[in-house]
Amino acid sequence: MDSTRTQNIRTLSARLNSFHSSIYFSETVGRSYAELGLEPGIPANMAARSAPMGRVTAGVVAGTFCNYSPAFIATLIPRLWDTVSPEVMVSARFDAVSLYFEELFGSRDDIALLTEAATELTSALAPVRAALDFSGRALAAATAEAVDAHTPATAFEALWDTATVLREFRGDGHVASLVTAGVPGIDALLLDVGTGASFKPRAAQKTRGWSDEEWQAAQSRLAEAGLLTIGTDDRGYPLPEITEAGRTLKEEIEVLTDGTVAAAWSVLDDEQISALVSPSRTLVKVFAQAGAFPSSVFAQPAKKTN
């Protein structure tokens, strides 16, 4: 793919990811899940995201989520399904998304402009959504089935549906690319942290459930390989920083990931893709203004969560 085209697809994918993942930090969404007996935060979000796959084992969830600790996932799955069934959770997530977007967009003076942007994106991305081949993409395929059974009530819900499928589709492709490159999930997470443009280190470790021993061992392994250097932050915690070799490896993985979505995006030409950059920016700004991605978790507004 042309470099400009590739970068535009990456930019759009990151913004669609933000549109999808902003719900994970919403107190409104958390309260909605708590009504089902779920602990807000990681447990509830894991239930919501994995629910389309049904009552699968912890191993299946760990395999598809990739950068979470399998041992941590095993403390939640299948126990979560004793509290709420996957079928109820699928429906509850759509209801929570509806409440969230009503809170976020409902009283804005620029609602007409934002609705137009959301409608434009959903319509323009429909051919990409239709071109997705879910072979080998368990999480994306299950998510797409759930979304196809949902009737969105607003332009924002419709875009969330599309964004969620595309996000999980690229995510499954990214996992395959990590496997191809021989990079374990914890290493991929640390390399992302090391850029200083994603999760803060302690937040990444906590939200993905890695023990101190596992985290320190991965840091040491990556430092010995010349992919990270390890300093300390102002509180004395380890602060990984990616090296040029680490950036090269990350870019190689992103190139592989680009290839996993190229066929789907091929239904749009360069001009059509470029035209979506502006409306996507308009919508993502709303999340930044609302503080949807907390500074306690992210060094900068989130671009990617696997």
- The coarse overall form would be globular
The percent range for helix content is 55-70%
Q: Tell me the β content.
A: under 5%
Pairing-aware structural class of the strands and helices?
A: mainly alpha
Order of helix and strand elements from N to C terminus: HHHHHHHHHHHHEEHHH
Mean pLDDT: 95
Pfam family, one: HTH_67
Protein name: SalK
Organism: Brevibacterium ammoniilyticum
Structure description:
This protein is mainly alpha-helical and 306 residues long. Helices cover 65% and strands 3% of the residues. The chain has 15 helices and 2 strands. The protein has a two-stranded antiparallel ribbon.
What is the structure about, briefly put?
65% of the residues lie in helices and 3% in strands. The chain has helices at 3-21, 27-34, 42-50, 58-65, 70-74, 86-105, 111-130, 138-148, 155-181, 185-194, 201-208, 212-224, 244-265, 270-274, 277-290, and strands at 228-232, 238-242. Strand 1 and strand 2 (238-242) form a beta hairpin.
